[in-house]
Structure of 6-phosphogluconate dehydrogenase, decarboxylating:
Amino acid sequence: MKTFDFGIVGLGVMGRNLLLNMADQKHAVAGLDLDAEKVLSLTQEANAQHQIKATTEVKEFLELLKQPRAIMVLVPAGKPVDTVIQSLLPYLDKGDILIDGGNTYFTDTDRRFTELSAKGIHFFGMGISGGEKGARFGPSLMPGGNKEAYERLRPIFESIAAKVDGEPCVEYLGNGSAGNYVKMAHNGIEYGIMQLISEVYDLMKRGYELDDTTIQKVFQDWNNTELQSYLIEITGHILKKTDTDGQKLINVISDWAKSKGTGKWTSQNGMDLEVPLPTIDAAVTMRNMSKNKPERILASAKLVWNAEQGNTDLPSAIEALKGALHFSILITYAQGLALLTKASQEYNYDLNLETISKIWRGGCIIRSVALEDFRKAYAKNGELKNILLDDTIAKAINDNQSSIRSTVQFAVQKGIPIAGLMNSLAYFDAYRSEKLPTNLIQAQRDYFGAHTYERIDTNGTFHTEWND
Ligand code: 3PG
C-alpha cells in the first residue's frame, strides 16, 4: 500500500501504453479503469520486471499511491474529465497532483485549475503527442501550469519521453493552460501538413497519372531529403501496404476524413486572436468538404472541367512538387508558431519557442528535420516575430518559390483542389506585401457604415461623405 509512484486513470490505448512506458523505466505505476477487461488486459501485458497494479476501484487505486499523490487522467476530453475528477475528489488530499493528459480545450484546463487550486490540489494540463507507439516508447510531452508541481514529476516524465541527441522531448512550457494550448497548435500544424501531403499525392495520382508504386517510391525517397519527417515517412509506409487481395489498401479507403476537434479549435482560436492561419483553416475546411460525399458525386457530373493534356517532364514535375511541399510545410509551421507567439502574450503563457521547437523534434506527429532549424532560429533570436524572417528559413522558402508557383498553376489547370498549397502561397504573398488592397475595404466600410479610416499621409481618424 502507498508504494506506487504514479497513477493513471483511463486504461485505453494511450493510458495503457504510457503506463507500460513508465513501468519500463522502473517506476511503480497504478492504473484505474471502470472497465474490468481493460484492467485485465493491462495486467496480462505487464512483464515480471514491471511494478504494475490495476483496479476498477477508485478507493483501492488511491490507496496504492505514495503521498502526495501524482495522478494522470487519460480519458476523452470534455465531460469525462470532469466526471473522473469528481469521482477522485472526495478521496484526494491537499498537495496531490492531478494531470490531464488528454486533448483538452485550454479554457477547460483554466477552469479546472481554478476550481482545484481552491481545494489545494495542483492541477495541470499536459499535451501528449506520438500516438499509440509514442506513448509506449517515447512521446513528446507538453506540460504547462504549476511549475513546482511539474518539477516534482520531472524525473518521471523525462524518463519516458522521446530523446533527441540525448535530450528528452519534454520541458515545462508555461503558465496556466500552456500545455494544452501548445498541443492544440501542434495538432493544427499536423492538420495542415497532412492536408498538404494529401494534395501532393493527388497531384501525382490524378494530375501526373503516376502509378501507385512510383508514388510510393517518391514519398519514400523524400524522407531522405529536407522533407524528412514522421508524416512523410508514414505516408511512404501507408502507400506500400497491400490489402488481402494484393491491391494497394489506400485505394479502398473511404475519402471521408474525420476529426476530433483540435484542428478546428486552432482555426477558431486563430480567428479570436486575429492570427492568420490559412493553411490550417484550409485543412479543417477540406476535412469538412470530404464529408459531403453525396453532394460531391452530384456536382462531379454537373460541374465539369476538361483539363488540357500537356507534355510533362516528369522528373522536373516531381522536383517541383517536392519544392512546393517543402515551401508549404514551412509556411504551416510558421502559421502555428505565429499563433503561439500571439497566444503567449494574450494568455500570459510566457512560452519559449526555442523550447517548443526542441521538444517537437522527437516523439510527436509533426517531428521533422525542420524543427532543428526552427530551434536554432529561436536560439539566435528569441524575439523572432515569424519564423519566415529567419535567414535560413527565408532562404529555404525563397529557393522553393518557383516550385510552389508552377505547382499551383499546374493544379489550377488540371482542376485539382489544392486548398492547402494555394493558401500557403497566398499567406506568403500577403505576408511579404508591404501594401495590401485592404485600403479599399476600409473605404467601403466607411462608405456604407461610417466606420472611419486612417490615412497614410497624416495622423488621425477620418470619415468621408462619399456621395456628395
Ligand atoms: C489525435 O490527437 O489523435 C490526433 O493528433 C488528431 O486527431 P484527429 O485527426 O482525429 O482530430
Notes: The pocket of 3-phosphoglyceric acid is lined by residues 103, 187, 190, 258-260, 262-263, 365 (CB under 6 Å). Residues 183-431 form a domain with the N-(1-d-carboxylethyl)-l-norvaline Dehydrogenase; domain 2 fold (CATH 1.10.1040.10). The first strand starts at residue 6 and ends at 9.
